[in-house]
Amino acid sequence: MGKKLNRWAFVACLAGTLVLGGLGCGDLGKVDQGRVIAFDKEKETVTFINDVKHDPANPDYSGAPMTFSLPKDPADRGEDPKAGKRMKLDAKTREIVIYDTGTQSMKKITYTLIDQKEKVGKDDPLVKGKKFPLVEKDKKAITIYSGRQKLLTTFSLPEEYFALPDDTWEAGDEVRVYYKEPGKSLRFMNITKTDIFKK
Questions:
Q1: Do 44 and 57 belong together in one domain?
Q2: Are residues 110 and 63 in the same domain?
Q3: Residue 43: exposure state from Cβ atoms within 10 A (0-12, 13-18, ≥19)
């Protein structure tokens, strides 16, 4: 366990060095992270939208899609990621940004607010044990929960958007890869589901 923890800690520290120090890694390789839009369990590949800011409090998923093969050694990879197409939920402007697989580009959609609750923690009865997004086509309503923003939001959209898959409104897991060759990760961390400090 200690060896595995040290590997993840190394990746985390390396990412911090790249982001905060802006230093080149040379032989150490590179680190990228972002939000997963596709995961192929059989081929063991993951595709994510690169976070161009690397700021956990204010991520910016506007980079190009990146696809990587996952490491073969279980000690070098975290939990399988959940994919989703929701990149951003802006409660102030009432806009949601999704990755449109049809056009392979970002799409900004203005929504009509139905209900919104703030400061909703993950253990709150409003969300604990419940599955989101909740798409109610008959009511033309979509309810999503953002754990990072602690925001539970129900909104309506034009009818054509309800033909899209439910994962359009779901945020994929945040992941990080360490690599030397493009497309081939040497280490993979599911940031959303991994606590590197947990023993």
A1: yes
A2: no
A3: exposed
Cβ distance 135 to 144 under 8 Å?
no
Residues 6+ apart with CB under 8 A from 173: 35, 36, 81, 82, 83, 84, 190, 191, 192, 193
pLDDT tens for 52-106 read: 987 777 889 988 899 999 999 989 998 999 999 999 999 999 999 999 988 999 9
With tokens 């980079």, the residue in question is 63
Structural domains in the chain (count): 2
Positive or negative: CA dihedral 49, 70, 148, 99: positive
- Flag whether 196 is in a domain: no
Q: How far is CA 162 from CA 55, 103, 122, 137, 188, in A?
A: 32, 17, 26, 6, 34
144: containing domain: 86-169
Residues 24 and 74 in one domain: yes
Domain identity same for 31 and 50: yes
Does residue 69 sit in the same domain as residue 116? no
Structure tokens at 42: 């059989």
Q: What is the pTM of this model?
A: 0.81
**In this structure, are strands 134-136 and 141-146 parallel, antiparallel, or unpaired?**
antiparallel
